[in-house]
Amino acid sequence: MNAPLLYRLPSAPAAAGLHPTVLARLTALLAGGAAALDASGAFPHANFAALHEAGLVALVVPRHWGGAGAGLSQARRVVAALAHAEPATALILTMTYLQHLALGHEGSRWPLALRERVARDAVRDGALVNALRVEPLLGSPSRGGLPDTVARRDAQGWQLSGHKLYCTGIEGLRWLVVWGRTDEAPPRTGVFLVPRDAPGITIVRSWDHLGLRASGSHEAVFDKVALPLENAVDLRAPADWAPGAGSAAEQQAQALHQAWMAVLLGALYDAVARAARDWLLEFLRQRAPGSLGAPLASLPRTHEALGEIEALLRHNRVLLDDAVAAVECGEPPPAADSGLLKHSVTAQSIEAVERALKLCGNHGLTRHNPLQRHLRDVLCGRVHAPQSDAVLAAAGRRALGL
């Protein structure tokens, strides 16, 4: 039994790369290979070749650099459509979109020439980019602390050394946006732009996760990687990275980035839950136990259980629609509200898939049925920063005025 291939998108005007037939073709292509990618954990090179051919890798790149200049509603539609079919590909693309958003912001501290180079590489070659932030000892920098990845000055520029975990898409990236610190006293922290093919980079193929197996989120080790001086694209005193620090324009950019991240990750995991729901509908229509003499879809208790899933998915859509509308009106929600959006949509997506599993029983855990894959994939939504404990604690402090 196969799940439907097409994610039914909310209606929206056609735009570059968003013609329904383009998304239908790509969704069918990705869905056809999803089970094999899950089994092998191989990087989805063919998927990204197809996405580049359709102009979707550079969808968010500003028009003046050759991209489509798409906004959040269009990016959400693409991520949701692809995630319904193969969510690891959608996750890697999401991370690239978030970097392209930052490159296009007028207040970016990056040198203009490097911003343009990364953007035009995406347009010309479909080059992917992602941030590398997590470390064995530091964990996620969103929880504070100085990174152990260190850049030391020499006569030519910088030498970067360190160790990063969970480098999503590392096998297919062209550019690495690496979080590190300088060896100065006091140190500065920030971002170093590193070409993936620079000498001194070793990929440790350690990614063997339960879900999103094709995301290729392996480790990267940097051993005195030589970088030009200008590739330290954004270095600041550590305190200047704290929430609420920086100019009003920088705080607005941060809120915008958090809103995009919450919406795109939320859309991704919501799409996984919808794929699970779609498979479940076909299963219930076809499964007719001999003791019943009719399909499971005929039972009133089935209708009620499905209604619970529909309520969760509708709540997701309302939350995502509301956040997109706020962003496109030029008023992105505060970062704390974006965190709550991510928490709520992720939790409801997981609950929807768990309810689907409960309704179909052992059939849902059978490897040749996709529901068990959807369950493994949707659980990965919990690990993305900001994580729920931090989000809820921040919301509680805000409610108390602390």
Automatic annotation (TrEMBL):
Pfam family for this entry, one: Acyl-CoA_dh_N
Segments forming domain Acyl-CoA dehydrogenase/oxidase N-terminal: 32-95
InterPro entries: Acyl-CoA_DH_C, Acyl-CoA_Oxase/DH_mid-dom, Acyl-CoA_Oxase/DH_mid-dom_sf, AcylCo_DH-like_C, AcylCoA_DH/ox_N, AcylCoA_DH/ox_N_sf, AcylCoA_DH/oxidase_NM_dom_sf, Mito_Isobutyryl-CoADH
Residue stretches making up the Acyl-CoA oxidase/dehydrogenase middle domain: 139-225
Segments traversing the membrane: none
Keyword Flavoprotein found: yes
Keywords carried by this UniProt record: Flavoprotein, Oxidoreductase
Acyl-CoA dehydrogenase C-terminal domain: residues covered: 272-385
SUPFAM superfamilies: Acyl-CoA dehydrogenase C-terminal domain-like, Acyl-CoA dehydrogenase NM domain-like
Top-level taxonomic group: Bacteria
MF GO annotations: flavin adenine dinucleotide binding; oxidoreductase activity, acting on the CH-CH group of donors
Protein name: Alkylation response protein AidB-like acyl-CoA dehydrogenase
